[in-house]
Amino acid sequence: MLSRLTKTRPEVGFCVACQLLMLAASLPFYSSYGLRVEWSTGVPQALVMGLLVALLLNFWYLPGAAAEWIAAETVLAACLLFVISCIASPAQYLAVAVGRPLIDPWLAAADASLGIHVPALAEWTREHPSVRALLYLAYFSLLPQFVGVLMLLGLVYRNSERLWEYLFHFHLCGVLTVASLALFPAACAFSYYGFDSTLPQGRFLAHFNGFRTGSLSVIRFDDLEGLISMPSFHVAGGLMLTWAFRGYRVVWVFAVLNGLLMAATVLSGAHYGVDLPATALLFGASVVVHRLLLRWFSEPHPAAAESPAATVVTAQ
Question: Closest Cα partner for 188 from 132, 137, 228?
Fold first, then answer.
């Protein structure tokens, strides 16, 4: 069953390739920048991964009927999602430790050209407690959504295509946003302008500044913080989650929730206004690349096309 899946779903190979690429680009360089990963703090993550692998092995040896394979696909998707998260989260700290010049002045100038002043927007949010609470809940709904969408697509809607498309976007956007953090870091709007965001940012400031200056050097799995600002992985996450349910009635729930989530990134003062269109372009590029990948695997290669007896495996 799993061998069939890797042949018919090219996204599986793509996700594994992204994970290997990020490992190769990060793991050998932690010590070069004076960083150390405290692996003992990752025991809970190891236990979760062990459980997922055990479930996967169960499907390997007892695959069941073809109609039941979507459950195995869902578990495999969960494994890949969990692994890339465990790779990318500490890689953010390495990206910050690289110490490239901050691009905040450019982002602030871009906002000014659009007539956007983030401190004023954050102050408006602060003056409306009900709006602030709503945006807070929407912003922190991202992690439960990332997990819940696997269950909905795989076990409720039983849509293998959408499940793997979602995994593709998660991996590609994750790799590109971490790479962007390394090359073009931003300290976020609240830090640049010097005001308090309506979202708690104390740990972000401590980790971003500490690892950038070298005053912090130990990465703990039980104390990880999102450090990516531009493009925003929160915005990319909201887009990919909503996109996954296009054509379903439930898409309106995700559209409203993630519309609030994306609005919260700016109205809270956490991100620059220009982060939103920039991330939309990133996600649009991810959609195009995914379609090109499927087209590549669905079309016969020249050698196969010349052979009448050749069997072409298409992405389904």
Answer: 228
Report the alpha-carbon angle 242-187-141, nearest 5. Answer: 30
Tens of pLDDT, residues 128-141: 999 999 999 999 99
What backbone torsions phi and psi does residue 34 show, to the nearest 5 degrees? 70, 25
pLDDT band at 312 (very low <50, low <70, confident <90, very high): very low
Q: What is the reported pTM?
A: 0.86
User: Token match 């000014």: residue?
Assistant: 112
